[in-house]
Amino acid sequence: MKAVVFHAVGDIRLEEVPDPVLKDPTDAIVRLTSSAICGTDLHFVRGTFAGFVAGQILGHEGVGIVEGVGAQVRNIKVGRRVVIPSTVGCGNCQFCARELYAQCDNANPAGKLAGTVFYGGPEATGNLPGFQAQKARVLWADVNLVPVPDGITDDQAILVSDILTTAWFGTELAEVGEGDDVLVFGCGPVGQLAIACAKLRGARVIAVDRLADRLEVARRQGADVIDFDAEKVPEAVLRLTNGDGASKVIDLVGVDAMVPQRGPGVPDRAERKEIDRERKAATPDAHQQGDHWVAGDNPTQVLSWSVECVAKAGTIAIVGVYPPTIDAYPIGAAINKNLTIRMGVCNHRRYVDEMFELILAGRLDPSTIITQDEPITDVIAAYEAFDERRQGWMKVELEPAE
């Protein structure tokens, strides 16, 4: 089968790889009909999240048809159309019993304290082959496969696999409710869905980014927008909230935040490449940014802004990805404001059925953010466009079938 294979930072290839096979009696094999490129995948390709093993298949968003099941799979039948939640839970441990699937005791081969497992991730997250492929092996199929209801399209279901559930999770962590002023950092795909989810919960939304096309999509959803190249974020938030700050803040950016432009001295793309090469040569073990000008001098910029912009006694939800190497936080300022700070990886399976209900009721349609639908044969060019944040590229769906 064809699959997108990681070889090294900045080096991914579309290759022929062996088809997956059943290994455990609780496994299933799914022929994928839809996959996608996620911002999290870019962390691995850029090298901002270490521990990715050469030969790993990328991707953690999948919809498909069940082709085979193990002897102990009872509820999932061959031929069913299913969505695959991105994080993996066994369904039986103390955390899965509380629907905290991202903290499953049994999924990570490194042991119960090792943390979240998801498909297409680095070694620390289980090293499970991902879904940017034509077929996939799914663990504990009765738990980690969810039949897609009639009336839900593949375009909608693929976003339930990860980013819609993650967006909803962010609004839940922040405890967004009627009348809240919610500040959303990042107007990429998850940010746009978080805006939609917060609006559905009755909140007013302020959205922060610097890309004009993404800010325009947020504006069309009814959000007030802040271009952080054009104005200072804390001052703008205070102006929009009568001097109080936002009651709830959701960080959907993580470590790969784009820095504010610095005027005429901002390096162009070629200059950024040369700077990155020089940094790598000087400090080969340092945090690598790859071909992307990010907040290398301040990878916690959004964390700082969040504390500055939130109202006293407000709540901050951190959903954007930060690697274990990031260990700084403005804790003193946060304590002084009596803040509640909640964070984590989405327990995707917990929210799948609820998202399907909202879609079927016509209250959410996540497919509106899909801007490209590309065959897997064009995946490398699609990665390049998405990584560059090329205008008009919001969310890329992949078609694994030839």
What does this structure look like?
- The protein has twelve helices and 15 strands.
- The strands form three sheets. Strands 3, 4, 5, 6, 7, 14 and 15 form a seven-stranded mixed β-sheet that branches. It has a six-stranded parallel β-sheet with strand order 10-9-8-11-12-13, with helices on both faces.
- The chain has 402 residues and is of the alpha/beta class.
- Helices cover 27% and strands 21% of the residues.
- It has helices at 39-46, 141-144, 154-160, 163-173, 189-200, 212-220, 233-240, 269-282, 301-309, 331-336, 348-360, 379-387, and strands at residues 2-8, 11-16, 28-37, 62-69, 81-84, 135-138, 146-147, 181-185, 204-209, 224-227, 246-251, 310-318, 340-343, 370-375, 395-399.
- The longest helix is centred in the last third of the chain and has 14 residues, at 269-282.
Spans of at least 5 consecutive residues whose pLDDT stays below 50 are 259-269, 282-296
Q: Main sheet?
A: 7 strands, mixed
Give the overall average pLDDT. Answer: 90
Structural class estimated from helices and strands = alpha/beta
Output the CATH homologous superfamily of the largest domain.
Medium-chain alcohol dehydrogenases, catalytic domain
Radius of gyration, in Å, reads: 20 Å
Based on Cα principal axes, name the global outline. Answer: globular
Strand content: 15-25%
Would you identify the CATH architecture of the largest domain? Alpha-Beta Complex
Task: Name the helix and strand elements from N-terminus to C-terminus, one letter apiece.
Answer: EEEHEEEHEHHEHEHEHEHHEHEHEHE
For the record, the count of structural domains works out to 2
Distance between the termini: 10 Å
Give the helix tally. Answer: 12
CATH topology of the largest domain: Quinone Oxidoreductase, Chain A, domain 1
CATH class of the largest domain: Alpha Beta
Number of strands: 15
Helix content: 25-40%
